[in-house]
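Mods, move this if it's the wrong board.
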Amino acid sequence: MPHWIEPHPTGIYVRPADAWIDPSQPAERALVTHGHADHARGGHGHVWATEETLAIMALRYGTASGTPVRYGEQVRMGGVDISYIPAGHVLGSAQILLEHAGERVVVTGDYKRRPDPTCKPFEPVPCDIFVTEATFGLPVFRHPDTGSEVDRLLAALHAHPDRCVLVGAYALGKAQRLICEVRARGHHDPIYIHGAMERMCALYQDFGIDLGELRPATGVPAKEMRGHLIVSPPSALNDRWSRRLPDPITAMASGWMRVRQRARQKNVELPLVISDHADWDELTDTIREVAPTETWITHGREEALLHWCMIHQIRARALELVGREDEDEG
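Not the wrong board. Structure tokens:
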């Protein structure tokens, strides 16, 4: 392990730069991969992130002090060359490439390999140490084609014109991606959104992501929403807010919908396996492609991916960072 980068339960410390990557506690200097709350938070002295991530952090956490870093731009900090590389997770998400003392370390944050119309695609970067997430780090998790899942959603909508389809989707990333995927399949009717999603959808649109016509779902007579798609946070699927909707077909867009028990527990009628994380094959293929000397594993199911690395004679270790869970379940 390089002497200049240190994994701690609260984040990864880059000693020569005196900076932390995705610290879960306030830090004087924070390098942030993306805006989800298990990677970003308020209270840092100064933040380096993409322009989109800084805007998301300002909206969600009131972050005021930050330096925007463009994709591919190199920032030098304490003798460490730091670059932000697209991660393909959500708007503004980045891998952080660290180069120091002849070594290259890539900290991915969260990432996926599937196309996403709302963010730049993941770019593999050869390195000595590859820090990968393992949210879906079990062989059972092999995500289906996104288009086929969206087709199932639209088929349910068209088959029940007197009802609506209520989709639970996380407010940062998943909701906007789902809306764009639906638009790409030719659905241009107004889409109703929960009030908790309005500001984030507006931010996406400010960055040039066309979401089509969106309408607030609050204060609208139920009959006006018949035959329409409604997008809400997962937590709103079964609360009082949803009871006023016109006989909703309840759906959820999440990689966890591969697990039928989770769908049943949440009373999900139409589980949609749409994930913003890499599945098992994408995790292992990415490690092969990047070809690191050593792989550090965090954020989820470390054991199975650790075992896979050992079988394939790749040195690996589990970091066990605190507070790293998929926000769809938060």
